[in-house]
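Fig. S4 source data, part A: sequence.
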Amino acid sequence: MANTYFKFKQFTVHQEGSAMKVCTDACIQGAFTATYIRNSLPGVQEILDIGTGTGLLSLMLAQQCSARIDAVELDETAAAQAAENFVASPWSGRLRMIREDVRSFSPAGRYPFIITNPPFYENDLKSSDHQRNAAMHATTLDFEALLAAVRRLLTEDGQFSVMLEHKGFQRFRQLAEAGGFTLRVLLEVHPSVGREAFRSVGVFGGEGALTTEQLVIHDQHQQYTPEFISLLKPYYLYL
C-alpha cells in the first residue's frame, strides 16, 4: 500500500500500511477529548497516550492544550511513524514517542490524564493478518490488562478517555466501574440519522454525575451533520 498523508489544518499525519489507518472514529475521539480537556481540565500539564499508533490522538490533543504528551506504542512500524509525525509537527517540543509495552512502562511519575484507543474486539473471529489482528483485536492488551495499566499510571484524581465499539464499551464500563472508576462523560456516536450508536467515547474518573451526549456523523442525505463539522473543523483541512 502506498504511503498516505492525512492533511489537517496544522499538521500532516503520515501512515503506512492498512492495519494502522487513521479513521474517522479516532478523529472523533481526539476532537471530543481535546474539547473536554480545554473546557474542563485547562490546567493539565501531562498526558499519556497508550497505543498511539501513528500519533494522531497525541497530535490532536497537542493542538488544543499546552500539556506535555508521552505516547507509548509497542509496534515498531507504528512507533517509527509516530516519531516522524511528532518531529514534523508544530508541537514537537511537547511530544515524546516511547516504543515500549505499556505493561512494563515505568515513568518517573503518574499522569493526570490518559487517552487510549484500544483494540475493539476481544473475542471475535480473527483474520489471518497478524498486524491487523493486533490493531483490531485485544491480542496483546485485553480490557483487564489495559485497566490495570491505567490504574497504575493514572494519578489518584486523574481521568482517562477511551473509545470502543458500542457493545464492547458496555463490558469495558462494567470492568472499569468494578475497579473503582466512574464514567463521567459519554459520547454515543451514530453513523447516520436513525441508526443505532456504533462507537462510544467515555471519560472515566472519580465520583461525579454522568453527562451523556450524542453525535450523528451523516444526515439523511449522507452529508456530514453540522455537529460533526463543528467538532472536526478545527482539524480537517477540507470540511
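Fig. S4 source data, part B ends here. The chain has seven helices and ten strands.
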